[in-house]
Amino acid sequence: MKKTGIAAERFGLAMAACAVLGFAAAGRPLQQSPDKEELKLQLPKPMFIGTPANIKSSNLEAVTGKPRGPFYVPKGTRLLSLGRPVRSSDMQPVIGELGFVTDGEKSGGEGYYVELGPGVQWVQVDLGGTRVLHAIVVWHYHSQPRVHRDVVVQVSDDKDFLRGVTTVFNNDHDNSAGLGIGADKEYIETSEGRLIDPKGARGRYVRLYSNGNTSNDLNHYVEVEVYGLPPK
Amino acid sequence: MSRDTFRWIFAAVLLLGLALRFARLDLRPMHHDEANQALKFAALLETGEYRYDPREHHGPTLYYLTLPGAWARGFRNLEALDEETLRAVPAVFGCGTIALLLLSIPGLSRGAVALGGLFAALSPALTYYSRFYIQEALLAFFSLGFLLFLGRYALRPSAGRALAAGAFAGLACATKETAFILAAAAVVALMLGRSRAERGGGPPIPLQHALCAGGAALIPIILLYSSFLADPAGIARFAGSLANYARRALAPELHAQPWHYYLALLGFSARGGLWWTEVWILGLVPVGAALSFGRECASGGERFWSRYIALYSLLAAAAFSLLPYKTPWNLISFHAGFALAAGNGAALLLRIVRPRMVKGVVFLLLLAGAGHLALQNRRANFVYPADARNPYAYAQTMPDFLRLARRVHELAALHPEGRGMPVHVVAGPYEQWPLPWYLRDLKRVGYWTDAAQAGGFGDFAVVVASQENALVLESALGERAQSEIYGLREGVFLTLFIERDLWRRYLRSHLRR
Lengths: 232, 513
Fold this sequence. Notes:
The complex is a heterodimer of chains A (232) and B (513). By secondary structure, chain A is mostly beta strands. In chain A, 10% of the residues lie in helices and 28% in strands. Chain A has 1 helix and 12 strands. Chain B folds into 2 domains: 3-383, no CATH class; 399-512. A 5-stranded mixed β-sheet of chain B has the order 4-3-5-7-6, with helices on both faces. Chain B has a two-stranded antiparallel sheet with strand order 1-2. In chain B, a hairpin with a 2-residue loop joins strand 1 and strand 2. The A-B interface holds A 52, 54-60, 94-96, 110-111, 113, 115, 118, 143-147, 149, 173-175, 181, 186, 212-218 and B 270, 272-274, 383-384, 386-388, 398-400, 467-468, 470-471, 474, 481-487, 490-491, 493, 495, 506-507, 510-511.
């Protein structure tokens, strides 16, 4: 009986250690380190109630329906993208304006999103200078549960993204966007948006690709927020 | 408007209608109802046999009238068929509906018919469902033909007009069971639209005319429902179906909508930053009806036609609105009448407005209305044909589903058995369609409603599953499969399971390209 109890205790300790290591490996420290602080995001109101929890696929992040946990960034990290100029592969959007992408308005309703044409399209935020980036949050369209295809996020100092490109997120699992296969999974977007960890990537421009979604072949952006350390 | 001017204008209107109805017919993914109709037609094409099925399908005209186009293109089986060939049939009848408006001359003025034709050509709703492989565009054509010949007969009876009215009524009944509602609306509109003197003074319908009309109506019903007498019991099934359809219309299990559904659909709807209205057409209908009571109408004939068309459209709209069962495509039969009535309203309005400047303003407003309809038409049919924000896209298959179909074909091309690759579809009937259309060229596609029925998946290559089944399959197939998610309809997803080696082969080939 005692042996069983000790074994269970050891098993419990091992599981706890694995959990701590797992979180650490995922870049989400359980405890705030002294030089980091929690990234405070202003989230819009949810536009649909509940998430379709029964949607399952090995290429889709499990839908938990729970809020995202805290995300820690170096102290002094600021929102760098607010009001910054935006370029796009579709400079004449069907609905909305490119300025919506960085206007700070994240409501998913009518009049708050920009709609780009079908197929692979991108938007690009100019941060005005090379910055060290610690978080990128994107809201494509959160009025209904959708999977946005081929979400690829890159950072570069080259406005044409020909040189010095760092890919910080890529969930194109079959190279349909032509930017290479990514290891990230697809996800169903909610009002929390998608938080991407650029792991301190440096660059002046942040470019976000997508290739339609499960509801239509168009591309939508409500808001993109880029967080990093401001210039000294 | 001179006759020559009218000819040119109407020809231009017809061309416009033709272009909007025939351009890029393959743009929108097949709706599950279209796919279902396509397979029903394919059975007729391949075997030459047709059996009326009153439970799942409407009348036979759609299938028989698709044959000439398929033959002309040399198609002999389901696999060869394409969307353009199928959708060309309702598109032809959608254009025919515009052309039929000519039958209201000389009752209505040329200006009224030209404007009515323009509204019909530009109406987003009329165009959308004229590009949809279901019975409605044909029903709208045949029921409008009956309405117009009935009106012509009422003013100048002749055996030819009785025959034509009967033939159109018969063909409408052989198209869809709801034709009886439209026929009844036309008869009531005729009775109400004629003045008391006209109603009381006319001679009774000669027996010869009644026989012509009755015979002309019965012939298509008998021939088509009996599959050209090969299946006489089809006529009895049709007769029996009417009670069944009445029950379904009054107490629907699906598609129950509030009474104002059609009014809202045509009047105003907005979703996701897009708003839609055909108020330009709806607003001019009462204008024409009201002016028909004044001195603006040039003759008794014009007065009659003005009231008759407006009354028919309103009565048919009211009848369809009162029935709890509603699907959006039902509206086109009465909306074609609204378009003509609106054209008449616009023409009468232009006639009564005297100062030239005010007339010019009215004309410019009408032009703006037509322009706005044209913009919405483009949006509904060419920019957002399958988008949930399009009010006419009802339970529409999403473009993402085409990626799934494409993926299955790409995988089949890599599979050792090619188009003989086994494909398991494990989904309820609602989620299976339109897969049978899109996988029509694959030789080994099996359909099951749940995973337990499908048995083992030892030799699986590709499995398409609805979400309830995907949970079971996810654990059954485990690491043997790579899975992907695809949108079918709004809020409805399918999971595609791909055998892991096949997936690796796919990635290798895809990356090489």
